Amino acid sequence: MNSECLRTLQAQAPDRLASFEKYYCGKRVLITGGLGFIGSTLAIALADLGARVTLVDSMIPEYGGNLFNISPVRDRVTVNISDVRDRSSMNYLVQGCDCLFNLAGTLSHVDSMTDPFTDLEINCVSQLSILEACRRHNPGIKIGFAGTRGQYGRTGPDPVREDTPMRPVDVNGINNVAGEAYHLLYHEVHGIRAFSLRLTNTYGPRHQMRHHRQGVLNWFLRLLIEGKTVKLYGNGRQIRDTNYVDDVVEAFLLAMADDRAAGQVFNLGGEPVSLMDFVEQAIRVHGGGSYELVEYPAEAKPIEIGDYRADWSRIRDTLGWHPRVALAEGIARTLEYYKQHRQHYWDTP
Amino acid sequence: MNSECLRTLQAQAPDRLASFEKYYCGKRVLITGGLGFIGSTLAIALADLGARVTLVDSMIPEYGGNLFNISPVRDRVTVNISDVRDRSSMNYLVQGCDCLFNLAGTLSHVDSMTDPFTDLEINCVSQLSILEACRRHNPGIKIGFAGTRGQYGRTGPDPVREDTPMRPVDVNGINNVAGEAYHLLYHEVHGIRAFSLRLTNTYGPRHQMRHHRQGVLNWFLRLLIEGKTVKLYGNGRQIRDTNYVDDVVEAFLLAMADDRAAGQVFNLGGEPVSLMDFVEQAIRVHGGGSYELVEYPAEAKPIEIGDYRADWSRIRDTLGWHPRVALAEGIARTLEYYKQHRQHYWDTP
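Output (structure tokens, whole complex):
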């Protein structure tokens, strides 16, 4: 078994693993953003479960696509390089699929402010294209969408429920609100079974490591591995809710297989921690390292969200999900992965 | 004075008229959707106030643009035929303007479901283009955006406040949520003074009358003028909040001139009424007519919103706006206008 996520289930929840095997074996599954962080981790699990997996990825250099991510299952999945903005390829690719994990998207808050049109095209226009493709060519498909805590904007200190009003503070958040809303609308009006998971800060193996604009947690781990000083903005006390990637993958597998998820939105979340505490834990696990506090850069300050804690009781109560990998364990696994494979993530020749 | 709106102010609120004259005289004003329903009514008022007005309109046949709408001030405004989707023309046109009333948009809930991409391009992509044009070429501009009650979706029977979570039930609503959010974000992050008015069902002179997909109230009045039977969907008891167009125009003039509006969202509203009561009032004013109840058409039922009542206390308390034209009076003026000018709205040769 190549999937670490499934190995955890085997040890902790063999019934769930069995139900996944039953559901996914032989299923035709499409994953957009399939060579990226979460897409590839999901692909490895699905290949292990016996699904027939096609990965769609645009391999845009600054984004997360990396063929090395799927090396454990390279010969058991189909890779299709294309862009979700390309309507004709999406019209073709959705045909005959049972499930679509729709994970392609730009993730950078800062980039969305400097290049708002690209963010709009990928996170908003393309989502509508994909849904129209499904409506016209495969209305029986099931779709899982990756939403984000960025949809909420500044939420204050309390745990955020799914019905909290969404007031995004950057273009990326606005476009994700729209992209998710299209999915729910196509469920409501056109009967396409779609759900959304609103992801919080996810970290783990297979995240791109060339820059920090798509997630800082992994970036901090790279700096520790390199022996560099981590820079924390402001006082470093900003709370982020965190999830190890395997827990996110399990949530996607669970929601897709459960008809009660259709038309629903679920927060994910797990271990809220200040960025400083995250780094301090990582330093302990790594056995060394340092950080310093610096001023917010001009482009980051106005879109800083303050603290974020997710209330993820809905997915716990509805689908029985809970995170399994504690922060110290997740950090250890992530550091181990990148120490072993750094040449595929930043020391590329 | 050509503007009926300003004549009402002259009679009821001469101080407000004087403050408008002081603020707008000599101001360079751009109106997107300027040949449409609200845009043209606003243009007539602004021309009367001494503003230097440029109207941008794409004159797309099914939309609201009609040169006859501005005939009272045709020689005192500049008409520029172009599409808000055309980035280069918008980059040029925003330069040197003091105020932009950003009213271009598609309004049809049903059309947005059959042609979601056009709705997306106009209501979402173009809004971002316009804001980027302002940020790059004229960051000192002030912008008023026309939002819609469609952003809220199904709200239930209670009056809806601005902080009610938005759950649109059609593509048009989703795109308007995004379009408005861009405006607020560009205020927050880039300092562009923008506000949004969330309009409810607005009726009055200068609305297009060739089809019912951009607003039913005016369409009902056309049917009465033609001696045809009005068809009400379902039981006809759906509540809509209503505003006469002049009251909406006054709200835009007021919010643009008041710096307290920057970064704010305001509901408009006035006289909530069931569609059946609206038609019965119109029949009384018109002196005849009939209606019947019919089943919802298949394309209308899933996006029906139920009842809608606006809580418009925020704009009342913040800016001192309230509607001035009661329903019976507004209906009478509208019927009178179209009886006189019907050849310009539906009996075109």
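Chain A touches chain B at residues 113, 116-117, 120, 124-125, 128-129, 132, 163-171, 174-175, 177-178, 181-182, 185, 188-189, 302-303 (CB under 8 Å).
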